[in-house]
Write a structure and sequence with these properties.
With 312 residues, the chain is of the alpha/beta class. It contains eleven helices and eight strands. The protein has a single domain, classed as Alpha/Beta hydrolase fold, catalytic domain (Rossmann fold). Strand 5, helix 5 and strand 6 form a beta-alpha-beta unit. The relative contact order is 0.12.
Length: 312
């Protein structure tokens, strides 16, 4: 009798646990997903760190051997450090020390109201970040808006950048086909539109997931809007900067990127005197996340084998 009661109690507890987990997934799917992402990042050896730069407390993830040459990876608009979770392990396994900061206004970094969130000011903070870490130079990578930030860093502080890596990067003076408001979705329909320009074959989002994504983004929409306004002023475009860069540059791009077209990749390649262009077939704007198995080995080989041009 006691054994039967114990089995019944265990069964009821198990059902209650499953019900609670299901409720959590349905109500807060983004939080649940973030938990799995955090666990994955931890298992791959990355740790959370904080540093004060120019009066701002920036969050970053770091992994890889302390003796490894440093790599700094910059995420895109509305992104965060964890967006590099698929690509960063390739660099760690190759022996590099990898830093992935949350740009000011994103991820776990604060959102001060008195900051411009312009490309130029974000670049200034990352220059200070690299120097605060004590590195004389780094290999610098940027994705989308982060690639734009990286280009300004390479132009303004070239001594800090040994190699530059640009993934589906913004920066050129090209007006996009899409309305900037697409990056500030306020409804499931608008979220689907954003998804359509980011992925070549987007999967339908369940309504409960779309609702939670919109709720999560709402608090940071003003940061994204301010960043977009600064971008479209056109004062930070890099068309004139790229031909002056002396370091080797890796350009990795999704062939089916509808956010920043592959034609812009070719244009950047033509402007950069020491660049390699790698196009990933059947991949969109999320290439560093969804096509890392292609880009990872290519980027590592580039960092290991590229020859620096002679000094003038």
């Amino acid at each position: 009798m006691k054994l039967t009661r114990r089995k019944t109690a265990l069964a009821i507890s198990g059902i209650a646990l499953i019900a609670a987990a299901t409720t959590g997934i349905m109500e807060w799917p983004v939080t649940v997903y973030d938990g799995f992402t955090g666990a994955y990042i931890w298992i791959r050896g990355f740790r959370h760190r904080w540093i004060v730069v120019n009066g701002h407390r920036l969050h970053y993830l770091v992994g890889g051997p302390a003796s490894g040459f440093p790599i700094v990876l910059l995420h895109g608009l509305g992104g965060r450090a964890e967006n590099w979770r698929a690509l960063a392990p390739y660099f760690v396994e190759a022996g590099f020390r990898v830093y992935m900061p949350d740009l000011l206004g994103y991820g776990r970094s604060p959102m001060p109201e008195n900051f411009s969130y312009s490309i130029r000011d974000e670049a200034g903070l990352i220059i200070a970040f690299i120097r605060a870490l004590g590195h004389a130079s780094v290999d610098l990578g940027g994705w989308s808006m982060g690639g734009w930030v990286a280009q300004l860093i390479a132009g303004n502080a070239p001594e800090l950048v040994r190699h530059l890596m640009l993934f589906d990067s913004a920066g050129l003076h090209v007006r996009p086909k899409w309305n900037p408001e697409v990056f500030i979705p306020c409804s499931p329909e608008e979220l689907r539109h954003l998804q359509a320009i980011m992925e070549p074959n987007p999967r339908p989002l369940p309504r409960f997931l779309a609702r939670d994504i919109l709720r999560t983004c709402e608090s940071r929409n003003w940061v994204v809007r301010r960043a977009l306004n600064a971008m479209f002023e056109g004062s930070d475009v890099t068309d004139d900067i790229l031909p002056t860069l002396k370091m080797p540059v890796f350009i990795g791009w999704g062939e089916k990127d509808d956010c920043i077209s592959v034609q812009q990749a070719a244009q950047m390649h033509s402007l950069l005197p020491h660049s390699e262009l790698h196009i990933v077939p059947n991949c969109g704007h999320l290439a560093p996340l969804e096509c890392a198995r292609h880009l990872g080995p290519q980027a590592v080989a580039f960092l290991k084998n590229s020859v620096h041009p002679p000094e003038d």
